[in-house]
Amino acid sequence: MTTRQKRSYRRSMAVSAYDLTGRTAFVTGAASGIGRATAVLLAEAGATVHCADLDAAGLHETATLIKDAGGTAHTHPLDVTDRGQLHQAVTSCERLDVLAAVAGIMHSSPVLETRDEDLDRVLDVNFKGVLHACQEAARLMLDRGTRGSIVTMASGAVDTGGAGLLCYGASKAAVVQLTKTLATEVGRYGIRVNAVAPGWIRTPMTDRHDEDAQAHTEALMSRMSPLKRVGEPQDIAHAVLYLASDASSFTTGQILRPNGGVAMPW
């Protein structure tokens, strides 16, 4: 084998490790932000992508982006807190190789002012919605004998305390525990389970302030990062692609932290 052939072989091996051609992915929260970026990137890698979200108009836009680029997308307008809707959508897939459970909501209130209904609402979406999606996906993978990958969405909030983020941080900490526990239970069947814990990402969910306040917040977050910037949805989508693909075939029960270096846990 010539030097040129060796280089070409190494490049093809690197590309094929991330190739999802012939595989099917189910992405919740796909109407915008990290979920949309993830759905689009998984489709670019070759996957048929089932996009789920409460926002039907946003889902249509995501599917259009995928189809216009030559990919294949299906839409499922649903509420992740409705287990019946999730079951129907997931089981409509003939096979399932990848779940990216991205859907989530934000709530901010001081601990002493947090109401039970606030906590319940966040846990219903951010934890139970992820739990039910994981259960449905893992059951389908087991039924089909698929050596699949489940990717959950945690948060940098699990590593640092944040004023007003009790509900959000607690729900994401629960996702971390779910990820590790499920990984130990389904690993013997070739199913991998990992989480992504993003830092501050510029998405519709984090864009909750007026323009000046948003600029101030992003400047603050940028100063906290050794990279001196905030993240973009594509930064997280690439982390999901890594965990979804064969490039991470020996990785399970892990928390991948694309957070710009703002938290460096041991």
Automatic annotation (TrEMBL):
It comes from the Bacteria. InterPro entries: NAD(P)-bd_dom_sf (IPR036291), Sc_DH/Rdtase_CS (IPR020904), SDR_fam (IPR002347). The keyword GTP-binding does not apply. GO terms for molecular function: oxidoreductase activity. Keywords: Oxidoreductase. Belongs to the short-chain dehydrogenases/reductases (SDR) family. This is 2-deoxy-D-gluconate 3-dehydrogenase. It comes from Streptomyces sviceus (strain ATCC 29083 / DSM 924 / JCM 4929 / NBRC 13980 / NCIMB 11184 / NRRL 5439 / UC 5370).
